[in-house]
Amino acid sequence: MQMPDAPEQKNKLGLWTTTSLVVGNMIGAGVFLMPAALAAYGSISLLGWVFSSIGAFLLAKVFSNLSKMMPQADGGPYAYSREGLGDFAGFLVAWGYWISTWCTNAAIAVSLVSALSTFFPALASNALLAVATGLSAIWLLTWVNTLGIVTSGKLQLITTILKILPLVLVAAGGLFFFKAKNFLPFNSSGASDYSAILTSAAYTFFAFLGIECATVPSGSVSNPEKTIPRATMLGMLIATFIYIISSVSIMGMIPGRDLQHSVTPFSDAAVIIWGSNARYWVSAGVAIAAFGALNGWILIQGQMPYAIAKDKLFPHIFSKENKKGVPAMGIIISSILISLLMSMNYTKGLVEQFKFLIMLTTLTVLIPYLFSTAAYILIRMERKYLKPAGWIPAIILASLAFLFCIWAVAGSGQEIVYWGFLLLLAGVPFYVIILWKKNS
């Protein structure tokens, strides 16, 4: 009875490749700069990690539970929002998430080029060469992702292992160079302890964006009702451990006044542990981290429009699959947009606009979290999934996750929230046109 299903299962993502999608997309090149960014707050920022980890755990648990109720829900947050809140809410989630994905990929491509400049200095001074290198990485990984989700999944697993290796080695090695005095002063931000914790928590939470990635290609995951919940929680726990232990280790090695001015904190820590040559393999880790994150998000960028196009809420071209069962056209169209945005970064007049757009995309990721938590209880009610004894824990989980999302959105800043919602509303005319064509 199991024989006919065997080939199908071989062409799907298993537990570890799905987990690597979560970990790989969460841990990008930016984490290598996190200790320096937090140094301005002092060691109190470690409490910020704890606070944001709690919020990430709540959201991971919500997505884990939703994936059990809707194991075949392609598009993850989109599918959950549409099921619980209707077509329009689902469209807004997919629209914002799609924009966020290709804008984020453009930023990752830029960070990849920056990391490679350690080995090839010309990339830092020659804009044309830098653009060509970034475009080569984008289209190489676009091609890899059109070969099938298993191929891209295997590459994601390899790059995830390679990227966390330097992080773990620095974190472990730093324990032998630990100095307690480097954690003083406890709060160097100049603000109250409460304000410092909240600010650092808001900053560190952005390192957890991507916890939902296992739910997006759910139709391509083997035994999704078991694999996705496990991968989501496991990926979140692995990333949390790496984030906190590496921050503690580096803060214990490098005095705060030096750390906050460092542009390569992990490299500086590696030099203390192993000598000057260690700087290069940490830089290689940064490049691999960016390359792996780019691969993972390119995989996601085709899955989200594919899911909404299947429901006839997006142009049909995004639902077309190639011989490998991959929504290749969606990936290619998104990669064209990524290429344009990445090239903008090397045009002086557009640099600031590009950075601002990247900030806006953070909000467009938080909105799907907000909608998904709102839909969580509604879906459970509709499907009569809860026994009477399970109502209170479910309501507490959904309420805490929802409030955390509200707090995170507010923490993005008034200007970002304003422009972010305008960006979402820009999709409304597009939705009206699609709806009109669908009903005509």
Q: Provide the β-strand percentage band.
A: under 5%
Largest sheet: none
As a percent range, the share of helical residues equals over 70%
The span between the termini is: 45 Å
CA radius of gyration is 21 Å
Number of E-state strands: 0
Low-confidence stretches: 1-7
Whole-number average pLDDT?
A: 82
SS class: mainly alpha
Distinct helical segment count: 19
- The shape is globular
Write down the oligomeric state.
single chain
Order of helices and strands: HHHHHHHHHHHHHHHHHHH
Summarize the structure.
This protein is mainly α. The chain is 73% helix and 0% strand.
Structure explained in plain terms:
The chain has helices spanning 6-10, 15-26, 34-39, 45-69, 77-85, 87-116, 122-125, 127-145, 149-174, 193-205, 224-253, 256-259, 265-274, 278-310, 328-344, 351-382, 391-410, 414-425, 427-439. With 440 residues, it is mainly alpha-helical. Helix 5 runs antiparallel to helix 6 and helix 9 crosses helix 13 (265-274). The N and C termini lie far apart (45 Å). Residues 1-7 have low confidence and may be disordered.
